[in-house]
Design a protein that fits this description.
- InterPro entries: Pro_racemase_fam.
- 19% of the residues lie in helices and 38% in strands.
- By secondary structure, it is an alpha+beta fold.
- Strands 1-2-3-4-6-7-8-16 form an eight-stranded mixed barrel, surrounded by four helices.
- The longest helix has 17 residues, at 180-196.
- The model has no long low-confidence stretch (mean pLDDT 97).
- It binds pyrrole-2-carboxylate.
Length: 319
């Protein structure tokens, strides 16, 4: 018998999110980290069925909405992509908020959201505009140099923004969409080199996102432009919510932003997130951790019923 799953697709600054709104598996009542383990162990085929070709694409991020553990929260969520699972996802949270509003499940205002890496919250301003208060973010190590095959020495900061990032300012690359193939190759090589040299995030966590920066296209509209390579080798079309959070943590650690400032991060395709910080002074990391607030807009692009036909040789996706 066919398995039928209802999904809503949206995009946030060009980066797509596919949210399972009905027909998903029952993951029990544990924490989101526990439910992520269950999903990974028993339902990973759904991740690849929904995200990989022929139904999806490498750039798509998926999400399953869960009943929260704490009844005071609006929902729980697990994010996934073409190769695995994400701790948090900023563009995905904005897409999720707009999806829940579309389904009539939430109204404008503040909402708590449980994720595998901790609770976040978001404010739905209207049908499109959302601000996400992300997990506490921090710079773990500054100016880390790595020898990269074919590129020489590359130096960057390691920071946590809900995923692990290596942030590089001095790379000599042109950050434009036309140059995406070369940028992808550059970032891929850097990521491989970090793994090969045992350079990791705190507690040995793999750094699976590489983020390059350049001046913005128009300094009146943005403060910086980025290119973010995601774990499955697709680049983020949005400025990357967790990547912008990692950047804000580095800027704060360098004394370049303070509470009340607005940082406008442009993506490689020209979409913009606004970032703000709230300082957490009692931290052991340099000047401290920050709670980043990321504001962006998402738009619904489809409401569909996905059919998984057991006779289909590619029912669970290609690859
Ligand atoms: O917006 O945090 C984000 C994100 C992570 C991967 C793709 N987008």
């Amino acid at each position: 018998m066919d398995q039928v799953i209802e999904v809503v697709d949206s995009h946030t600054g060009g980066e797509p999110t596919r949210v399972i709104v009905a027909g998903g598996p029952n993951l029990g009542t544990g924490s989101m980290a526990e439910r992520l383990s269950l999903f990974r162990e028993h339902f990973d085929y759904l991740r690849s069925a929904l995200i990989r070709e022929p139904r999806g694409s490498d750039v798509l991020v998926g999400a399953i909405v869960c009943k929260p553990k704490n009844p005071a929260s609006t929902a729980g969520v697990i994010f996934f992509n073409n190769v695995g699972y994400l701790g948090m996802c900023g563009h995905g949270t904005i897409g999720l908020a707009v999806t829940l509003a579309r389904k009539g499940l939430i109204t404008p205002g503040k909402h708590e959201l449980e994720t595998p890496v901790g609770n976040v919250s978001f404010v739905l301003h209207n049908n499109h505009r959302v601000s996400v208060d992300n997990v506490a973010s921090y710079r773990y190590r500054k100016d880390v140099s790595v020898e990269v095959d074919g590129l020489g020495t590359v130096t960057g900061d390691i920071a946590w923004g809900g995923n692990w990032f290596f942030l590089v300012g001095n790379h000599g690359q042109e950050i434009t969409v036309d140059n995406a193939e070369r940028l992808t190759d550059y970032c891929h090589r850097v990521r491989e080199a970090l793994v090969a040299h045992g350079i990791a995030g705190e507690n040995g966590h793999e750094i699976d996102h590489i983020e390059l920066f350049s001046p913005p296209t128009n300094p009146e509209q943005a403060d910086s432009k980025n290119f973010v390579l995601c774990p499955g080798n697709a680049y983020d079309r949005s400025p990357c919510g967790t990547g912008t959070s990692a950047k804000l943590a580095c800027l704060y650690a360098d004394g370049k932003i303070k509470e009340g400032d607005v940082w406008r991060q442009e993506s490689v395709i020209g979409s913009i997130f606004e970032g703000r910080i709230r300082a957490l002074p009692d931290s052991t990391y340099e000047q401290g951790k920050v709670i980043p607030t990321i504001t962006g807009s998402a738009y619904i692009s489809a409401e569909s019923r996905v059919i998984i036909d057991p006779e289909d040789p590619f029912a669970h996706g290609i690859g």
